[in-house]
Design goal:
single chain; alpha/beta; 4-stranded parallel sheet; two-stranded antiparallel sheet; 15 helices; binds adenosine-3'-5'-diphosphate
């Protein structure tokens, strides 16, 4: 569990099973530390959402940072001057983050933000404060869970405070049973999918559609956010949100964060659809498909794996 102690943040846990046992089960979801659960309680009780707030919501590794950047660029009118000098994770703070997680990009930053305030959350839908649904506009980004599992696996390799887990165990013992932070994936995605059908203030976007046609999706998000941008400004957003630009941009690629071992696996890693093919054995794929079928039973949410 990360604490304010740098040594802890920079020291890889050696026993991943013990680390998993220390994760906290909290109201139907898994959290990295009890601190996060406490923060959720605080946010629930004390945080007031305002008209105009904009939230990027997602299960981890779904393209959250990508969407944070798109939303931030759209709100700032793609003005490069406004985008200089502030890390994206501070421009779009982490709602449930707080200093006691050694995170200086938590919700306290929102207190000084001008409207519209931008934020991200990975919180499982039923746990978000009800005022968020009443007040905010929410962009939920969903991604196929096979690529999420791969991306999550590499994140564990890279982050100094997360344990390395062998790939087979990572899928079968952690990802599929929902034992990673904010898991299980299907509860997260299906809750928001269902909610998006009855709430016009929730926009549901697929990672795979962003990869296929970024411009069309950016235009759609701009309309949802009520931003009328010129053709040039939209083009600028698309350029700044491209994989190559984001990989090279220190304000968005987390390369300044010491606890993430970018030399092992960079945060902006591959950005493709279907990298799971390079990782899954036939047997792992069979097990995954079997679980996926159970997860999706009765849901009309379409997920593209390729
Ligand atoms: P990969 O590890 O598969 O490359 P999150 O921000 O939710 O943690 O998601 C991280 C994933 O989004 C990573 O996936 C990362 O490469 C991908 N990503 C971030 N910016 C992207 C972009 N501009 N284009 C494509 N993928 C991007």
């Amino acid at each position: 569990m990360p604490t304010k102690n740098e040594d802890t943040l920079l020291q890889k846990p050696t026993d991943w099973r013990a680390w998993v046992n220390d994760l906290v089960r909290y109201k139907d979801t898994t959290l990295i530390a009890s601190i996060l659960a406490e923060n959720l309680e605080t946010i629930h009780q004390a945080f007031t959402f305002l008209d105009g707030d904009i939230v990027v919501a997602s299960h981890p590794k779904s393209g959250t940072t990508w969407m944070q950047n798109i939303v931030s660029l759209l709100i700032d009118g793609a003005d490069p001057e406004k985008l200089k000098g502030q890390a994206l994770y501070q421009r779009v703070p982490w709602l449930e983050g707080k200093e006691d997680l050694d995170c200086d990009w938590g919700y306290q930053l929102l207190e000084n933000q001008a409207s519209p305030r931008l934020m991200k959350t990975h919180v499982y839908g039923p746990l978000v404060p009800p005022t968020m649904l009443q007040k905010a506009r929410i962009v939920y980004i969903v991604r196929n869970p096979k690529d999420i599992a791969v991306s999550y696996f590499h994140m564990h390799r890279a982050y100094h405070f997360l344990p390395d887990v062998p790939w087979d165990e990572f899928i079968t013992e952690l990802f599929l049973p929902g034992k990673l932070q904010y898991g299980p994936w299907h509860k997260h995605a299906l809750y928001w999918w269902k909610l998006s059908k009855s709430h016009s203030n929730i926009l549901f976007i697929h990672f795979e559609d962003l990869v296929k046609d970024l411009k069309t999706q950016v235009e759609k998000i701009a309309v949802f956010l009520g931003k009328e941008l010129t053709v040039n400004a939209i083009e600028k957003v698309v350029k700044e949100a491209s994989f190559e630009s984001m990989k090279a941009n220190q304000a968005v690629n987390y390369s300044q964060v010491e606890a993430m071992g970018h030399e092992i696996s960079p945060f902006i890693r591959k950005g493709t659809v279907g990298d799971w093919i390079n990782h899954f054995s036939a047997e792992q794929n069979r097990r995954f498909e079997q679980t996926f079928e159970v997860w999706m039973d009765g849901s009309d949410l379409q997920i593209d794996f390729l």
